[in-house]
Amino acid sequence: MFADAVRAAGHAAPRVLAWRDVLRGRYAFGPGELVRIDSPGENAEVDRLLRDTDDPARVEGTALWHRRFTAAVREVTAAAHRAGAVTTADPEDVAVMFDKRRCHARLAAAGVPVPPALKGPVNGWDGLREQLKAARVPRAFVKPAHGSSASGVVALAMAGGGRVRATTSVETTADGRLYNSLRVRHYTSESEVAALVDALAPDGIHVERWLPKASQGGRAADLRVVVIAGRATHAVVRTSRHPMTNLHLGGARGDLDTARAAIRAAGGSFADVLDVAERAAACFPGTLCVGVDILPATGWRRFAVGEVNAFGDLLPRLTGLPGSGAEGLDTYAAQVAVAPAAARRAEHKKHPKQQKRQKYQEHQECQKHQEHHHDTTD
Fold this sequence. Notes:
The protein has 12 helices and 13 strands. With about 375 residues, the protein is an alpha+beta fold. It folds into 3 domains: about 110 residues, no CATH class; about 80 residues, no CATH class; about 120 residues, ATP-grasp fold, B domain (D-amino Acid Aminotransferase, Chain A, domain 1, 2-Layer Sandwich), CATH 3.30.470. The strands form 3 sheets. Strands 8, 9, 10, 11, 12 and 13 form a 6-stranded antiparallel sheet that branches.
């Protein structure tokens, strides 16, 4: 879809570098090229290179994935800059967005509203249970620190008498391995929940208070807002019968006009939603486009940021918001329209110290690349 948008704008078809080749060091850039880094997606060979498994459905291994993926993004960015190419994503921004703990901390430090979160490491079920009890948080979202697309996410509810209920798309096998499933299920045995959390903990988990969401048509609702070059351009309502609203888990697009009306009825303005999204995106100034997940509280009166996604622009057939400058354009066409100018402005705005630090980092990455390209090569 991005390639279609490039061609539709009258440009030559983009040159596509497959992640399997990038991870093996088979890539190069030319002066003046604009480099867009996209999601590795679900590919068995790429998964093996990034986290030593050839089954994309496996949940475990996200810490290793994060380490190798962010190293690759840094190397690609350094190589692009050495060649005189321009990139649309900052590697440190990407690294933070793919670490829910660091992303939450960055947003909170900037005054962006976020759900309260547990502080410090969570090493397993026993520690999690005690920390939630001490914080008086009976309902929480337990998220793999480096997960995406709701992989491994657990909506946890605890009650008196040791009762517990975990809602998740994770399927646990008899030998304790975790797999993503398209079916959301419930675990109500503490031993099952403990085994699940204990299996997630080694890769790192981020735990937030479960904020009751607003509803639309009797279904839980949230919003994905795409921010391009600092401006909120696209928004979609996502609804679900489950706590997770991801479309691949049975979620469905809601009605944006109905959400706007509910916000007005509550005494607010949809502009408040867009403002929160733009403030979140401003925490990642080196990245052209991010997808911000907005959590509307019950009654559509308040809004918090659940996540900021580095690759959150996959919203087929969705055109820009009125007044956004992206009217009639999908998320990809909107990026194509502003990418060259925005990317070059970002390059020119860098502080001299940042430029010096970047050159040093690029030099280090270059040396590392030459000495031992990844720990994933054959």
